């Protein structure tokens, strides 16, 4: 993926507070499901709005909106973003598999900061 | 014994209409006596510069005041002084001391900008704290020097003015957050439990009904109180001297959010989230007991493995508390968006000390943000 591409993350409604703040958990892989790979949509292949529609309608997920982090921003944290079309064509992952649970905090919070600074890319 | 001198402060207000004086004013009158005595000693030393560095022996006992009666006309305690060493020119010393005291009170009462007489004893200044402490806002003490001189009034405003000026680091306007845990109508006080102390406050006029309503509400309501507060050197609130404003803090937002989180069923997070019914009650009980503080309400988020995240944000800084709801143990995490600095420490909310750490960490980022 290009360094200026975005990894688009769906935000679970529970991870968005009534005042619009989001938790850094949005950028943490789920221990039981993700095996250290944070799922995202590849902005080179799909727009934030279409990613939202795909997630909520095709995959049946719940989303309060779409946030995004640039590949370069992720790389600066020592992490890689790569395409992962095994699930669906536009799928990408931020690889955090080598990090322990405690080590995930810093990059997750840094990605949250970058994404929040960028702002919502799509909101229903 | 002959009464050599008299001082007749006139107490004005509803509580004195029966020409009686509530017993609590004994402390105020004692402070008045001590004030006069210290001023007398100061005058005596000034009169004998170069020859005396100390006041006459037993000056305090020589100038001991007794309540010898209550005169009609609201409540006018007659404070008599028995003196038996006329060689001290005692009468003159006493009347000069009273005059000095009254001129200080008059000066403070009349002027926004005022100065104490040069060299005025610090010990005397401190006594303005107990003197008048028992007065309500609507009450006052009047001193009539002579019939042709205007009455000099001492009330809560005058007292606060002098205390604010002589001890600016101790007396200031503050907002305190907490719950009312006691009301003593006889003493006209209430107790507010803040997160780090219990603060006794005087019930100012117009607040009796409101305070009672809050105190007797079914839920112990959290309130913000603004007023003149005395703090110790560690900035801990000791006493609320004057209550100017009281607002009920809306904890509904936080409770609603907890209800939202509580109602999440195992279907959230694509079926991986867990039910939190019941577990959140323990958290809320602990929260209500210990986070009675001046912090804004934090954001709350569920954590996928039976947990909850509590987060305060102030500008680029965040303090997060990530807790397992099953045992209320977790981590306290500080993060700075700009520097990516991250610090974390374990917490166990079943220990009271953990709440001190949480309140301190969150309070620090709020303080930096607002300063």
Radius of gyration of chain A: 13 Å
* Largest sheet report of chain B: 5 strands, mixed, barrel
N-end to C-end Cα span of chain B: 63 Å
The sequence of SSEs of chain B as H and E is EEHHEEHHEEHEEEHEEHHHEEEEEH
Question: What's the gyration radius of chain B in Å?
Answer: 28 Å
| Strand residue content of chain A | 15-25%
The chain-level structural class of chain A is: alpha+beta
Instruction: Give the largest interface.
Output: A-B, 23 and 30 residues
Q: What is the tally of helical segments of chain A? A: 3
Portion of residues in helices of chain A? 25-40%
Order of helices and strands of chain A: EEHEHEEH
Query: Unreliable stretches of chain A, pLDDT < 50, 5 or more residues?
Result: none
Order of strands across the widest beta sheet of chain B?
7-8-9-11-10
Number of domains as seen in the coordinates of chain B: 3
Main sheet of chain A?
Answer: 5 strands, antiparallel
Description:
The complex is a heterodimer of chains A (124) and B (371). Chain A has 124 residues and is α+β, with helices and mostly antiparallel strands. Chain A is built from three helices and five strands; from the N terminus they run ββαβαββα. Chain A has one domain. Chain A is 25% helix and 20% strand. Chain B is α+β, with helices and mostly antiparallel strands. Chain B has three domains: 2-166, no CATH class; 170-248, Bacterial OB-fold (OB fold (Dihydrolipoamide Acetyltransferase, E2P), Beta Barrel); 252-370. Chain B has a five-stranded mixed β-barrel with strand order 7-8-9-11-10. A five-stranded antiparallel beta sheet of chain B has the order 12-13-14-15-16. Chain B has a three-stranded antiparallel beta sheet with strand order 1-4-3. The termini of chain B are far apart.
